[in-house]
Amino acid sequence: MIIFIPPATSTPVNIMETKPDNMIRITTQRQIILEELAKVKTHPTASELYDMVRKRLPRIGLGTVYRNLELMAENGMILKLEVGGTQKRFDATTDTHYHIRCSGCGRVDDIDTPVMDDLVKEAAASSSYLVQGHHVEFTGVCPSCQEKNKDVTYQ
Amino acid sequence: MIIFIPPATSTPVNIMETKPDNMIRITTQRQIILEELAKVKTHPTASELYDMVRKRLPRIGLGTVYRNLELMAENGMILKLEVGGTQKRFDATTDTHYHIRCSGCGRVDDIDTPVMDDLVKEAAASSSYLVQGHHVEFTGVCPSCQEKNKDVTYQ
DNA sequence: CGGTATAAAAATAATCATTCCCAACATCTT
DNA sequence: AAGATGTTGGGAATGATTATTTTTATACCG
Q1: Tell me, what CATH number does A61's domain have?
Q2: Greatest CA separation found in chain B?
Q3: Which residue of B lies nearest to A132 if distances are taken between CA atoms?
């Protein structure tokens, strides 16, 4: 069950956002994309999401999925994961948490290591960048890839 | 000045490496790609490196750059950074260290926050993955993008 | 040294993810 | 209802990367 933030009280906009904060309209497509994303605990790519959404909206275009994921990420409704691998992944949970990516199949899962908010302060002290955020990404072998490669010895 | 590991004593191979450890030949192209990568403290993309290398080897192909970066990364001679953004980046320094990526221009720099080796142990305890490694990626605004956007207020 | 096998390079085509563009349609504003 | 604006679908365009094919360079063996 998804609760939609009504346009009038829309969520805060990104840092570096130039245009005055625009509210985004909740179209059928947007609603269903968001619902499908929220349904899963994995972090689907745009085309995985496209396949999921198409079961309910067979005529939706892939471009629409991309466009709206981007838009919802900009508005802080979802999280765009810029992790390793070739494709971007999306996450309906927007509060800070870390991820682990399978080096075998590319799948991404949440990992519940405590978030280290101090890291940003530390980094700010030792860099000329204006530090905005951080992300920790673990790499490993997921259960199903371990199963597939029983013969291989990891160390 | 770059020291090349002679084929006979080549560097250790990756975990999950299937084929017996093959030595790689040091060709002119490889040598120059590696030299150019080691020259800079930034973390160039394949095509940035292509441009750098072309000044010394005008007839080199982009494919050669990609192929050799991949190969050298597999052999542990360099590091392939699978960070956010659209392109992969490469790093001549192979020991663990963290990075910061500019949200304006995509540039990636090293950041000298202490490496937290315990993180992997922690993650292993709270996950069904076989945890292999980790990476911390900060995001921020680099000095030159700060300069370009004096009018914007960051918070 | 010459001939053959093998590895790597160059050139080019193919693929994949993503973005862009545009005509048709929907929704807001007055 | 009319005009302005926003959104969609579909397809073309782009950009990064990978694969394929041909050519060139290096290694191996007598």
Answers
A1: 1.10.10.10
A2: 57
A3: B140
